[in-house]
Specification:
Chain lengths: 253, 281
Amino acid sequence: MPRESRIIEIRNLYFAYQKELILDNVSFSLKQGDFLALVGPNGSGKSTLLKILLGLLKPLRGKVLVLGEEAKRLKQRWRIGYVSQQATAFNHGFPATIREVVTSGLYGKLGLMRTPRACDKAKVDQALDEVGLSALASETLGQVSGGLKQRAFIARALVSDPQLLILDEPTVGIDMSSTEKFYKLLGRLHQEQGLSLLLVTHDIGVVTTLVDYIACLNKKIFFHGRADNFSDLKTEILKATYGHDVQIIKHQH
Amino acid sequence: MTEVLLFGPVQRALLAGMIVGIVAPLLGVHLVVRRMSMMSEGLAHVTLPGIAIGLIVQKLLFPSFNPVYCGMLFALLAAFLLERLRHLYKHYQEIAIPLLLSGGIALGIVLISKVKNLNTIDIVSYLFGSIMGVSRSDLWLAIIAGLAVLFFFAAFYKELFAISFDEEYAVLSGVRCRLINLLFMTVVALVLASAISTVGILLVSALMTIPVATSLLHSKSFAQALYQAVIYAELAILGGFTAAYYFDLALGGTIVLSSTLLLLLVYLVKKFMLSFSTRAR
C-alpha cells in the first residue's frame, strides 16, 4: 500500500498507565476514503488510542503516523476533525448559536490575528447545509435536541475541510431516531465526499452495515479486516474481544 | 485626552467607572461561561498585600506613589501563579482560588498590622471604593487597562470564544490555548487592579459576574451576551454612582447593589413575559 494513501498508520503500539499495559502491540491502518469502526468493551483502550492519535498522549513504544506525520508532532491539527460525546457533556447554558459554534471550527486553521472572511463564511454555510442545520443556524445550541447538537459538532469538525474525521462514541445520550439519522449522515459524508472516518462505538449493530473496515480492540487487536468478513465471524470475534457472548441490536438504515 | 487631567475627583471616578464597566463584563462573560468566576475574586484579594506594600512605600519613601501599581503587580504575579496552579492541580482546578484568596488576605493583614500609623481611611477606600478616591493616575490606569482589553478582544476574540466554549477542541484544532489563557489572566489582573479605586477590592469581581449573570438570563448568542453584559454594567455604574453621590454612600456598594437590583428586575420581567406568552397561547 503506498504510504501517502494511508491516513492512519499504527505499528506495534504499546501504552501503559503506570505499570498497567493498556495497549499491547496494536497495529492497524486506515486508507484514504475508508470508514473504520473501532469496537471494544469499556476499558479496552479505545479512548487511550484516540488520545494518542489526537496527539494528547505519547506512545510508550511503536509508531503512530497520522496524515503521514507523527501524531504528537502534527502541525496542521485542523486536518483532523474530531467529534466527542459532547451532546451530553456540553455546557447547555452556554450562550452560543449553532453558527457561532460551527464557525469556531475554523479558528485553529485561520491562526492568530486573522478574522474569518467571506470565503470562510461560505464554508460555514456549506458545513451547516451538509448536516441539515441551515435553517437552525441562529438557534442557541443548548436549546436544541441532542441529535441536532451532535450534527452541529460534526459541522464544526467539517468546516476546516479535514482529511480525517474521528468520532468518539458520538451517539451516547442521543435518542434512537436521532441516532439513525446521525448514522445516515455519516454514511453520506463517507460515500459522497470520500471522507476518511474513524468511528469509536459500542454499537456493533451499526458497524456491520455502515463501515468498510472493523477493528476489535481489547488491549490487543482481536480483529482487523473488512466488515463483510467480520459479519461472517462476528460471534466468535466478539466473544474473543469481549470475553463473553454479545447481543447485537439491529438498526434500520 | 489631556482634558482628563483637569477633571475633578467626581468626574474622574465616573469616567474610570464607565471604562471599567465596558471591559470588566467583556472579560467576565468568559470567566463565567468557563466556570472561573471565582478566579477574579481570588485575584482581587491578592491585590490587598500589594496595596498594603504600596501604602507603606507611599508613607515611608515616595508620598506621590500610587499604591494601586503595587496591587496590579501582585495581581499579575497571582495570575501567572494561578495558571501554574491550574496545571498542577488539573483535576481540582478550583483549589487555586482559596489558596490565592486566603493567602492574599493573610499577607495583606500581616503587612497592614506591622506598619504603625498607616492611614486607615486609605485602606477602607481601597477595600470598598470611593468617589473621592480616584486619583489622576488611577484614571490613566483605567484608560490604559481599557485600551489593553479592547485590543486584546479585537485581536483574540475568536480564540477566546473557542477556548471558552470547548477548550479541549480548541487545543485539538490548533488554537494556542496556553498563550491565550496567559494573556487573558494578565488582562483580568490589569482590569481588577484598575477598578479597585472605584469599586474596591471586596466588590470588584462583582462587576465581572453580576452583569454577565443578568445577560445570561436572556441572551441567545455569545455576541449578544457580551454587549448586553456591557450595557447592564454601565447602567449599574451610572445608578450606583448617582446613589453614592447624592446620598453619600460607599461607591463600590452602591454599584454592586444597582447591578443586583438590575438582575432582579430583568429576572422578573423575563418571568412576567413568559407567563404572559403562556397565557396568550
